[in-house]
Amino acid sequence: MNVLKFGGTSVKSVENIKKVIAIILNHRQNGDVIGAVVLSAMSGVTNQLIEIGRMAAVSNPDYLELIRGIEERHFNVIKGLIPIKEQSKVFGRVRGTVNELEDLLRGVSLIRELSDRTMDLVMSFGERLSCLVISECLKSKGVPARFCDARELIKTDAQFSMAEVDDQTTNQLIRNYFATIGTDLPIVTGFIGSTANNETTTLGRGGSDYTASILGAALNANYIDIWTDVDGMMTADPRKVPNAFNIPTITYAEAMELSHFGAKVIYPPTLQPAFAKNIPIRILNTFNADHEGTVISRTADRRDFTITGISSIDDIVLVNIQGSGMIGVAGVSAKLFSTLAHYKISVILISQASSEHSICFAIEPRNADRVREILEAEFATEIAHGHIDNISIERDLSIIATVGEGMKKSSGIAGKLFSVLGKNGVNIIAIAQGSSEINISVVINKNNLSKALNAMHNVFFQSEARILNLYLVGAGLIGRTLLKQIESQYEFLRTEKLLRICLVGVSNTKKMLLDPKGIDLSDWQDRLMNEGVTTSLPAFVEKLKDYNLPNSVFIDCTADKDIPLFYEPLLNANVSIVTPNKVANSGSYAEYKRLQRATVRRGVKFLYETNVGAGLPIINTLQGLMTSGDRFLKIEAILSGTLSYIFNTYKPGVSFASVVREAKEKGFTEPDPREDLSGMDVARKILILAREAGFELEPSDVTINNLLPESCISAPSIPAFFEELDTNNAYFENLLQAAEGRNEKLRYVATFENGKVTIELRAVGFDHPFYSLSGADNIISFTTERYKERPLVIKGPGAGAEVTATGVFADVVSIGSYLA
Ligand SMILES: NC(=O)C1=CN([C@@H]2O[C@H](COP(=O)(O)OP(=O)(O)OC[C@H]3O[C@@H](n4cnc5c(N)ncnc54)[C@H](O)[C@@H]3O)[C@@H](O)[C@H]2O)C=CC1
Ligand SMILES: N[C@@H](CC=O)C(=O)O
Ligand code: NA
């Protein structure tokens, strides 16, 4: 035998009530015995009744309008669900109940007073009306339903609005009642009860769940089914954590912790009677009746995760009371908490460090000022004597609770929790863990709530892929290729690497598009074109900070000199950066160092493997040697893919400018190819390598060996530059022919040795290791303490869209692994 309870949304409209009736009929057809059905008021009605009461209390006659509205809603149910010839009798009964409500409010309006006692009576009409109407609907469908006013069964004390149930009397009354009704199906008003003197009381908002549990326990039901509008309890609030999913089984204790911390699926007192009788509570969805929902019972099986759920209280304040006079003095906390209890201030969380120097506790914001006054008065003497310094209040905070019985047996949960919050720059203000070990609560700033919840959910519920939120600036050749590569690897990363890449922002020089829900990788170009707004980097970064998404990565695929100005603020906001743009690392040494320090300080990543040799593993190799304690003696390298390509491809008689054009078309050159031909690009790269090798070099320490005649450099635009190149063909032809005549090849070689950089155009013979390069190859030779006899050499294509995007992609994925 089961007790069924349907909440406010389930009985909100004709459409929804049809679903409720179908569920009841279905049970009966399957032979499942229903002991009782408990109903809430139609959704919105209780709030309206409260408003009506308040309006009447100030003699505002408009309340009559609201009463008509409530009456109308119930009439509509009758019209929609009861055959015409049976309707008038039910209309009459509804009208009679509504008249009773009107009489009551007339009285309230006359005496202009609304006590908690009267308010409870006013509120009782919501459930009385819904049960009245729906029991008649069921009767007309052949169910032997019978309206049951719970005030005759549930006896309480006289704490109106939050009455305590007298279990013994109540259980007896319930059993007596059920002994008399035979096979009738009582439709019981949720939420309400009455005192020994038959005054109406209510059991607290959400109390209909509690009514069902009281009935179920008294009747020794097999199940208490709470039918609501969600698929059971979820691992987190799905409005805040889109990846939250249903929890199939949960213990009473876990459900209690989660519902105290804001998971509004079940009213916490409901759990007690069910727990005492070991009756499972099932949370089911009226609108998705086939879903298995959540079963709450003593033991929960089918556990895939160490924690069961994450919940939060979104708005709290923290009160801190501290002073040297508190150390070792017994009774301060006793006085503190008995004072709070005396004033009925509910304390949500308490934390005291073992130094006993301070105690902090969380309360609802509406109590903050009152608590300060109360405590300042109560501890006036201690404050006057300096034993207590002050009572401070910190606002705009949230509490997040990780809940789960599984935490008892496993270590490392707190470590995981703090690490994920740390990596996402979420500062923890206070921590509490009860010795039951099924709840670890942390207090954080409210503006980090969504980020923290999502990041935590992501690491604790590991079967789900970790999200990496990308913001790409510069959707040019490399940027576009990167997105294409990510798109084709998306499924592999999600299923094999448990990494879900989400593009949140993308921009080029003209337009930018940001969407925190993610931009589909298959149509980002169309969306950018159609929905994008004029690019503004400050606005882009502002939005990024505003969204405050976990695991955010900023990718700079431009060669822009201004974008690096945003790197440090981004790192400080715990956003990792990946970039092929060399500007930041080749500016002043101080700036280079500042970025390095920011990454260490904030525990985020700044990765730029493609600054040198595109996708070739040069920076990673160098950093590996450095961190393992090797020392660099010499770096000798060919670092320009563009120049390699030109020197490997140029044949006398061909126009030099056309070879440069080819290099540009193949995607080897910088957005402005003069950067390559002037030697600037190589200068940047060797400077970066020297710095990575531990040397403090400024750009002025690198002399550029420029290959271009002045007229080419000073051309006003890139097309003009190409024209200028054409007119200088003879200059380049001579240069190359001279080498060719000696069977040598031209190589643009950068060397770092003894703290000094040299860059020169060399002609090398076939016995030189740099002779046999082809295409856009780079070659880098590291001579170190450990690689002294024979240097470590890395060689391969050092420019081009695919290889560069691959390097950027690898950096992005490595951030994903780090954050996980
Ligand atoms: N092409 C290659 O082989 C390699 C390139 N790199 C680097 O990759 C970066 C990108 O190169 P490519 O994709 O070849 O250049 P590109 O010129 O094709 O793309 C650059 C993109 O950045 C956009 N952009 C420029 N300033 C912007 C701003 N302020 N805001 C938004 N968007 C902006 C442009 O609209 C363009 O779409 C450069 O820093 C380059 O040095 C690094 C290694 C190899
Ligand atoms: N333009 C560069 C590629 C990027 O670093 C080159 O030609 O090497
Ligand atoms: Na590289």
UniProtKB/TrEMBL annotation:
Q: What molecular function terms (GO) are annotated for this protein?
A: aspartate kinase activity; ATP binding; homoserine dehydrogenase activity; metal ion binding; NADP binding
Its EC number(s) = 1.1.1.3, 2.7.2.4
Q: Which UniProt keywords apply?
A: Amino-acid biosynthesis, ATP-binding, Kinase, Lysine biosynthesis, Metal-binding, Methionine biosynthesis, Multifunctional enzyme, NAD, NADP, Nucleotide-binding, Oxidoreductase, Sodium, Threonine biosynthesis, Transferase
What processes does the entry annotate via GO biological process terms?
homoserine biosynthetic process; lysine biosynthetic process via diaminopimelate; methionine biosynthetic process; threonine biosynthetic process
Enumerate the spans annotated as ACT domain: 402-470
Q: Which reaction does it catalyse?
A: L-aspartate + ATP = 4-phospho-L-aspartate + ADP; L-homoserine + NAD(+) = L-aspartate 4-semialdehyde + NADH + H(+); L-homoserine + NADP(+) = L-aspartate 4-semialdehyde + NADPH + H(+)
Which superkingdom heads the taxonomic lineage of this protein's source? Bacteria
Gene3D superfamilies the record matches = Acetylglutamate kinase-like, Aspartokinase, catalytic domain, Dihydrodipicolinate Reductase, domain 2, NAD(P)-binding Rossmann-like Domain, VC0802-like
Is the keyword NADP in the record? yes
Cofactors required: a metal cation
Which pathway?
Answer: Amino-acid biosynthesis; L-lysine biosynthesis via DAP pathway; (S)-tetrahydrodipicolinate from L-aspartate: step 1/4; Amino-acid biosynthesis; L-methionine biosynthesis via de novo pathway; L-homoserine from L-aspartate: step 1/3; Amino-acid biosynthesis; L-methionine biosynthesis via de novo pathway; L-homoserine from L-aspartate: step 3/3; Amino-acid biosynthesis; L-threonine biosynthesis; L-threonine from L-aspartate: step 1/5
* PANTHER family, A to Z: HOMOSERINE DEHYDROGENASE (PTHR43070:SF5), PTHR43070
Family per similarity comment: In the N-terminal section; belongs to the aspartokinase family. In the C-terminal section; belongs to the homoserine dehydrogenase family.
Describe the subunit structure: Homotetramer.
NCBIfam families under this entry?
asp_kinases, PRK09436.1
Q: What does this protein do?
A: Bifunctional aspartate kinase and homoserine dehydrogenase that catalyzes the first and the third steps toward the synthesis of lysine, methionine and threonine from aspartate.
Q: What is this protein called?
A: Bifunctional aspartate kinase/homoserine dehydrogenase I
